[in-house]
Amino acid sequence: MENDGNLRSSHREMSQLKLKHASSSLHDLIQQFVETRVKDCCIRQRLQTDKETIIRRGTFYALENESKAEPGFLIFLPGQPAVFTTMRGKTSAAWMMRMRVDVTLADGGGTMLIATLDKIQHTMRFEDVWIWKGEELASNKTYTQRRQYLKDFVEKCWTPDPRLMGGITCTVANPKPLASVLESDNFHSMELIPELPGRRRFWFLKEEPVAPPHQAPAPAALSVQKEMVAQANRMNVYAVALESLPDVYDLFLENGTPLCRAAVQQLALSQQLRGKKGKIPVVAEWKAEFGRYEIVAVA
Questions:
Q1: CB 3.0 to 4.6 Å from 211: which of 52, 66, 127, 279, for a disulfide?
Q2: What tens digit of pLDDT does each residue of 228-259 get?
Q3: Could you give the angle at the alpha carbon of 239 between the alpha carbons of 233 and 244, nearest 5°?
């Protein structure tokens, strides 16, 4: 993880994130969780020439990587902060992530996502769900099925807050059919995610050719916004506080239609809202980078 940088920004210097390491006891707990809950802890393997026959026969989705950052495990355990680790060995680092998430992710023993953390670009990309509230998915559900769990995480269990995360911007991976990106030059490496459960990903560098794949439709892009609502710049809505998450509110349209969850980023506004109860009329502003609205004022 120390060498992760982005091709698009190689001409300029960016400060590397300084994340807080998990304690040794939490590190051991995370490692035990991964090793006892999944059959294969290896997320991906390098594509070799003799593996290209597998690519021809199977259905894979392509995920372009713009940097050297590697995928790892984003884990939510009962009573613990979110932790990210690559699990590449006994000495692999584990970093605590300050995230606004629903406490139910810890149900059943915990939840584990596959994500890529780029400490140079200050980004985290959510890619897959291997364990969901104690249920092991990696070897039992197809990638298309697991995408629905990822959609549930984004829409129902997580509220973006880059300020809380120390400037990290989170995004959701939207892979494409492999055939549609083979001629692309806008990546450093490419992940090949198998549709079938219980299979490892393959990856290769841009300079390495890959055999023409079996054609597969693109998985549906994850929308974090209700389709019925126009993405207006600003709109008047109602906010209802969540008891389990401070400064996080469910937003509703005037007719009662649920809109999305939103975090309050301003301290003064946070204090103002905490003094109100029930359905609070507020002004919400569309944030394209998160695909949802943010509370910016009291109406």
A1: 52
A2: 344 457 889 999 987 766 778 888 888 888 77
A3: 125
